[in-house]
Amino acid sequence: MNSIRLRSLPHLLLALFLTLAAYGQSLAQTVGSAPAVSKEGVAPDATAGATAATATAPAAGGGDAAAIAAGDALFKGNCAQCHAVNDVVVGPALAGITKRRPMSWIIPWVKNSSKVVASGDEYAVKLFNQYGKQQMPSFQLSDQEITSIVAWVTSQEGKATGPNDNANGTNIAPGDGSKTPGDDAAAGAGSYMNVLLIVLVVVLIVLVVTLVIIANIMKDVLRGRKDLDGRDVEIIEQRFDYSKIYKSTAVRAIVGVVFVLAVLYESVQGAMGVGLQQGYQPTQPIAFSHKLHAGENQINCAYCHTSVYKSKSANIPSANICMNCHSQVKTESPEIKKIYRAIERKQPIQWVRIHNLPDLAYFNHSQHTQVGGIECQTCHGPIQNMEVVYQYSPLTMGWCINCHRETPLNTKGNAYYDNLVKLHDTKNGAVPFTVSSNGGTECSKCHY
Q: By the 8 A CB rule, do 124 and 410 touch?
């Protein structure tokens, strides 16, 4: 009888653990069963009525409740990450969009903004440049769905975006446009689940410790009895041999495989990183601050780097450019005196180059800045905030190719591209005319 009780103790602990785990999982499934929103919009079960509504969506500026509700759902699923109705987020506030642009412009813009920008549309190009040349993704939405979104936006114009001040009863945080009562419920449920799981873990630990103590007490009591047979004594005195674990062939094989995989992973990562210097930040011979000059004093980059728009490379400024200011400004500074000494000795300042490309790659700086209109920060990062400059971008071939694939080519006013763009649009439809479309990813463009 006693041996049976002892043998059943591990089974009891295992059953208790599995019961608690199953209970916690069932609670998690119950709490997390709210309808989800997909990348394309609201999940099918949440948009069954919305789809029907969009079929009869009215023109912007009005609309029935069903169409506006459909637009609300579509907006939250596709637009709320970057836009709000009355506030600027990543992109512009959408209030008054129908007064600024007609629907015949809005629909193509939502479907493929890159193509509209590449076409040279003045408003599109201005918007693209105004918001840091951030490309809005293309959306596979129908004309009716876009019209529903605009109808919802129009219905919300001028309304406060406080916690409880939205026509549809949704909680929209200022500058967000995507907070709903379901978000608060999900957040509360998440906090509740965290507390519940912690309590369950603590209870399980207490139960395990309690059962271990009881088992030890039972063993001590049974050791004092003289009516136990040999099998009972064997169970009471048994000890787990931990040496069997590390002496096990299977365990040693698993450890060996994990070790080999870890070494192989680190070796591959090290090999892939050869030649990459992203984050490289050497100490310069003179403590020059781009944050002070380009940031606080707003000195244009081209004032010091005079060939940035007209040469293959952006030159390092000579000492006489520094002296245009520092012959009068901060003349007693120890760092400025280093410039004086270089001039007196007729020696160049030994600046340490940060951005290096391999000799096998051809790169033309003016082609990107003058012709392509690329801003300095696109490749060099927030240079105006750097006390000490570092390499911001990876400058790898893949990084360059991705940029060429994604950047639309500005062909406006250049007749050279007219036929190319026409042929491209005929063959590729809605795909924008990018640098890659013009041969910008051909090997011979950079390797010759």
A: no
Cα–Cα distance measured from residue 310 to residue 140, given in angstroms and rounded to the nearest whole number: 41
**Sequence-ordered list of residues with C-beta below 8 angstroms from that of 147, at least 6 positions apart, any chain:** 54, 57, 58, 59, 60, 103, 107
C-alpha dist (Å) from residue 433 to 112, 187, 312, 366, 409: 12, 43, 25, 21, 6
Q: Is there a contact between 430 and 111 (Cβ–Cβ < 8 Å)? A: yes
Of 154, 125, 131, the C-alpha closest to 61 is: 154
If you search the block for the tokens 């507390």, which residue do you land on?
A: 195
Residues β-bridged to residue 23: none
Q: How far is CA 47 from the centre of its chain?
A: 28
Helix axes 334-344, 319-326, angle to 10 degrees: 130
Cβ-Cβ contacts under 8 Å for 23 (sequence gap 6 or more)? 200
* CA 237 – CA 242 distance, rounded (Å): 16
* CB atoms inside a 10 Å sphere around CB 376: 18
Q: The dihedral of CA 292, 297, 298, 304: what is its sign? A: negative
Output DSSP code: residue 384: G
Residue 61 to residues 49, 103, 170, Cα–Cα distance (Å): 21, 11, 20
Task: Determine the pLDDT at residue 202.
Answer: 92
**b/e 100-118 (16+ beta carbons within 10 angstroms → b):** eeebeebbbbbbbbbbbbb
Mean pLDDT of 91-98: 86
Task: Provide the whole-model pTM.
Answer: 0.44
Question: Could you tell me the end-to-end alpha-carbon distance of the chain, in angstroms, rounded to an integer?
Answer: 88
- The 10s digit of each residue's pLDDT in 22-62 is 655 555 555 444 434 333 333 333 333 333 333 333 443 44
Write the DSSP assignment of 223-289 as a string of letters: HT-S---HHHHHHHH----THHHHH-HHHHHHHHHHHHHHHHHHHHHHHHTTT--TT--PPPSS---
